[in-house]
User: Fold this.
Amino acid sequence: MSAVGNNGRNKQKIALPSSIKDGWFSETEPMWPGQKLSIALEEFSEDKSVLFYEKSQFQSIMVFRSAQHGNVLVLDGVIQLTENDEFAYQEMITHLPMFAHHNPQNVLIVGGGDGGVLREVCRHDCVQEITMVEIDEMVIEVSKRYFSESTATSFGDKRLTLIHEDAAEFLRRHNSNPSRRGYDVILADSSDPVGPAETLFDPAFYEQMHSALNEGCVIAAQLECFWTHSDLIMNVVACCADIFDTVDYASTMVPTYPCGQIGFLLAGKGENAIVRRPQREIHKSLQCQLQWYTPAIHTASFILPKFIEDRLVVSRPSPMIFDVDDNTDEQHDCFLSRCTIS
Assistant:
């Protein structure tokens, strides 16, 4: 059931999933009943636009070329990324925790087989070691082939150790090793809590991440959309409030995700762990490489609509309040004040 050919084109017509019909891909809806996103294929002929479709040991994997969003990666019928907007997710899940740490050197990536989080971690020169645990080797191989110029650009980085294993089992083994080296940042870039990612939403997994962290260090984990999964978000935040010293929820916008919004759990170990503002300056050379993340976006991502903030406030520790520098208004002044209206 694969569509793999020279130059990203399939050699022969294959049996396509029911999610492809009349020149459109439509998501299945196991996680958000009542809605699904549809994206037009680049060419009306499905066998020309579908670049890959095969079932791995763990899930179905599909890549298709879309009319407006570049190549699209789909796992078990659900969109994981499009080349057009992936940076809004990859940069935020990575740089929020990376800049919440004053000097991250040892980083663990859970999942992230498309390579986007790895790409962003590799932008930090202070990082010395990167361990990536992705259970599905096929996702990585497919990403290397069809996203080699977007997300899958850093698998050759010499700092990377790549492991194909269930992340929960990896952490259990890591934490039982008395000579283990703790992590400064852990990034759980999981898919939705069904199939191979289900164990990554279990309370025991957050306890394992906490044990694997160094003191004063932070984790970030994909934590769904507050329009569709507010109960899940509240449960995870409440659970992690019993485990971590600092717990918070940050938000970003991704047009091809449900409702155009997705959020992240940010949690810190130790009283000095702060996630709501950067703990170090971003170098100009790094900022020039980014399309979404800025220090101002970092802080603003924790400002949530009242209806979700009202629910979070009873589930998490009170966010740390910090003094605002005297020149903050000058640095973050409203763009309208700089506009001339004719």
